[in-house]
Prior knowledge:
Layout: E1 10-11, H1 17-23, E2 26-28, H2 35-41, E3 46-61, E4 63-80, H3 83-93, E5 99-108, E6 113-121, H4 131-143, H5 149-164, H6 166-198, E7 212-216, E8 220-225, E9 228-233, E10 240-243, H7 246-250, E11 253-258
Antiparallel strand pairs: 1-5, 2-4, 3-4, 3-5, 5-6, 7-11, 8-9, 9-10, 10-11
Helix pairs in contact: 1-3
Amino acid sequence: MTDALPMTVLRVNHHNPQHIAQRYPYAGYGSNLWMAQITERCPKVELLIAGKLLDHRLDFAKVATITHDKTSTVPVGIYQLTANDIERLDKHEGIGRSYDRVLITAITDDNRALRCFSYIKRDPTLEPPSEKYFAKLLQGYRDWHFDDRRLRHARQRAVDAWAAGAAEREKAATTRVIDAVENVRQKYLAKSASVAWAQGEMFEPVNEPGESACFPAREVEWGKRDGEEYFRKRGHRTWYKYVRNADEEREGWVSGERARNLPGAGAYKPRDKR
């Protein structure tokens, strides 16, 4: 009877809980199989029937999720919920953040295809569950009289995958730390350079000629060659070709570009003779 309904999984985060409640029951496969939890989260819940999801397997991405797998099935407990129940459940599941709400087709124990809604985790990276969380699922499987071997196999897959990825995670974590330290170092150097530049202390550029310089006007001496004006930090040798900037002049600064052919000492003339 599976031909009667679509078997595709359809995300319906945007659908109003009232719309969902009127049309679809809820198929739970994780900790909401535990009767004590589902009745606490959804006070008006009604238990309908057990079933299974075809072409899916149970996985743990720290918490339960399902993954498409043509060779497997997932047992589910099917419930009828009110709109208020669905709103509460959406919050618990972190709809749109941790989980997506989806439509999925379950095959009931009496062999009916039933379109239901459920939740699938957004990040499916395998990671083993905590003992406390796993105990909730175990109790839920007992409440529904499901064989818990699938549950234990799913946990073991997550344990194995997590162990296999340990070296890669450690490498990634180390890289993040190194990048963070380098980022802080670069910010510190940039800030230090900025302060030194503003104070006129970076008077000996280390790059190729053409690098710019900026000094307080009171700390420079001037020179002239071939009709062009040059300046240098008092007491230092490197000359810069003056680039006029009205805003800087008003604020008491002079700036320019390092000359490719530095003028000799004879190019210097006192400021009042420029």
